[in-house]
């Protein structure tokens, strides 16, 4: 627990200034976090990012991540962001032939989907920051409340297993408790922040985000169980990897955008 607290404090001290400042430093931080996340996923499948196929996957991720304000770089070459992405997919498929199927079609599919999964989540992290700091903190705090509520309430009164094949410690009671805690945070945001929502719509949105955030957590648990690893990485001592910390938010940030809250 001591290690988790120390790591959390240090990570917050490094992370928050970038979030507050925004702009290019924040974009670079997001690229770094997403790149580490992709590295962790590829490593689970025993694929290395330090290879031709790994670098192509990384470039595909970077194309997905590129914010709107920087997309004029593609216009310079008379191509769109989507066209660059398609080109990289074709190169990854060509590698199956060049490597004589040592890099397989299955590996191509895993690499592409991994980049899309990580890329979409972190792309909407930047979109959420562009909408305003309040939405970043709203998303982080409701997921913190969901995780904490699910843990403590599940430990206190949890009896029915939520999804034992994927995450044996999670309970139905804990999951519901997490949603309730998230709703408390939503009410506080309506009362004490400048978030552009009234209480009833925000509570409805919060329920959906809390539930899907828990699904995001279970998705990451499913990955780790399938590949028989305890944590996605070791970059955050006591917490695991980047994906271990951002798994819920990778689902929450795109949904937050789709709800047109701002």
UniProtKB/TrEMBL annotation:
Its EC number is 2.7.7.41. GO terms for cellular component: plasma membrane. It is a multi-pass membrane protein. It is found in: Cell membrane. InterPro entries: PC_trans (IPR000374). Pathway: Phospholipid metabolism; CDP-diacylglycerol biosynthesis; CDP-diacylglycerol from sn-glycerol 3-phosphate: step 3/3; Lipid metabolism. It comes from the Bacteria. It holds the Pfam family CTP_transf_1. It is an enzyme of class 2 (transferase). It catalyses: a 1,2-diacyl-sn-glycero-3-phosphate + CTP + H(+) = a CDP-1,2-diacyl-sn-glycerol + diphosphate. Keywords: Cell membrane, Lipid biosynthesis, Lipid metabolism, Membrane, Nucleotidyltransferase, Phospholipid biosynthesis, Phospholipid metabolism, Transferase, Transmembrane, Transmembrane helix. The chain crosses the membrane at residues 6-34, 46-65, 77-96, 108-126, 132-153, 174-193, 199-219. Coiled coil: none annotated. One of its GO terms (biological process) is CDP-diacylglycerol biosynthetic process. One of its GO terms (molecular function) is phosphatidate cytidylyltransferase activity. Belongs to the CDS family. This is Phosphatidate cytidylyltransferase. It comes from Neobacillus massiliamazoniensis.
């Amino acid at each position: 627990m001591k290690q988790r607290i120390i790591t959390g404090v240090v990570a917050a001290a490094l992370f928050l200034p970038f979030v507050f400042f925004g702009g290019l430093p924040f974009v670079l931080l997001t690229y770094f976090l997403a790149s580490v996340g992709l590295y962790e996923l590829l490593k689970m499948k025993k694929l290395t990012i330090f290879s031709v196929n790994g670098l192509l996957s990384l470039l595909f991720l970077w194309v997905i991540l590129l914010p709107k304000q920087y997309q004029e770089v593609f216009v310079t070459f008379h191509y769109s962001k989507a066209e660059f992405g398609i080109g990289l997919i074709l190169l990854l498929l060509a590698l199956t032939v060049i490597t004589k199927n040592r890099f397989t079609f299955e590996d191509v599919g895993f690499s592409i989907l991994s980049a899309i999964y990580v890329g979409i989540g972190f792309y909407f992290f930047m979109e959420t920051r562009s909408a305003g700091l309040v939405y970043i903190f709203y998303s982080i705090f409701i997921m913190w409340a969901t995780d904490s509520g699910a843990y403590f309430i599940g430990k206190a009164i949890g009896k029915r297993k939520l999804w034992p094949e994927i995450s044996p410690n999670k309970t139905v009671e804990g999951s519901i408790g997490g949603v309730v805690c998230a709703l408390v945070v939503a009410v506080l945001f309506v009362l004490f922040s400048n978030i552009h929502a009234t209480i009833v719509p925000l509570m409805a949105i919060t329920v959906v985000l809390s539930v899907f955030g828990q699904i995001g957590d279970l998705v990451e648990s499913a990955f780790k169980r399938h590949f028989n690893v305890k944590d996605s990485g070791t970059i955050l001592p006591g917490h695991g990897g980047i994906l271990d910390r951002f798994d819920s938010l990778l689902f929450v940030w795109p949904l937050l955008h789709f709800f047109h809250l701002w």
